[in-house]
Design brief:
Elements: H1 18-30, H2 32-35, H3 43-49, H4 51-54, E1 61-65, H5 71-79, E2 85-89, H6 93-105, H7 107-110, E3 116-119, E4 132-137, H8 146-159, E5 160-166
Parallel strand pairs: 1-2, 1-4, 2-3, 4-5
Helix pairs in contact: 3-5
Length: 167
């Protein structure tokens, strides 16, 4: 039993704030091609995508690609341990700023702020400090050209450790 339920990885993450959903919808209207959905990912999807983080045995290097407003990020930060490192790659500057603010002001995020960096850059241009043990991607691949999808998967393979997990 964890005395502080905010960080207990066995309880579902709280629902995202309404302002996140509004920001997401505005960005969807402005930049559908990179947002890809009308609503942020659900907490159930976040739990499924981060499942491998729950069963690891050693510190992890984690890369989240396309975090948007942080629906999956919220779950990742709850699962982070003191020696983990998290990089977030978000092409949308509005979302990147929202995440930077969240790391500075939200208690759950602030706990791992010194272990986390938000990068406002396309994944293909991200040099990274890999290899990464986990890459968790929320990119809307169906919205992209086949050429771009190939570039993205080349970047995944370049950044992922040989025994790494891509979600």
């Amino acid at each position: 039993h964890c005395p502080d339920m905010r960080f207990d990885p066995f309880h579902p993450a709280p629902r995202p704030p309404v302002r996140d959903q509004i920001t997401f919808l505005r960005q969807f209207r402005r930049r559908f091609e990179t947002t890809g959905s009308v609503l942020p990912s659900s907490r159930f999807l976040a739990k499924a995508m981060t499942g491998p983080l729950e069963v690891r045995e050693r510190p992890a290097r984690i890369l989240e690609v396309g975090p948007g407003t942080g629906a999956v990020t919220r779950r990742i930060v709850r699962l982070m341990r003191p020696d983990d490192r998290l990089d977030l790659v978000e092409i949308n500057e509005t979302f990147a700023d929202l995440l930077r603010d969240r790391f500075a002001t939200d208690a759950a995020y602030h706990r791992v702020e010194s272990q986390s960096t938000v990068h406002a850059v396309p994944l293909q241009d991200f040099a990274g400090n890999g290899p990464y043990d986990f890459i968790i991607s929320g990119l809307p691949l169906n919205n992209f050209s086949i050429f771009l999808v190939h570039e993205i998967f080349d970047a995944y393979l370049r950044l992922l450790a040989p025994d790494g997990v891509l979600s």
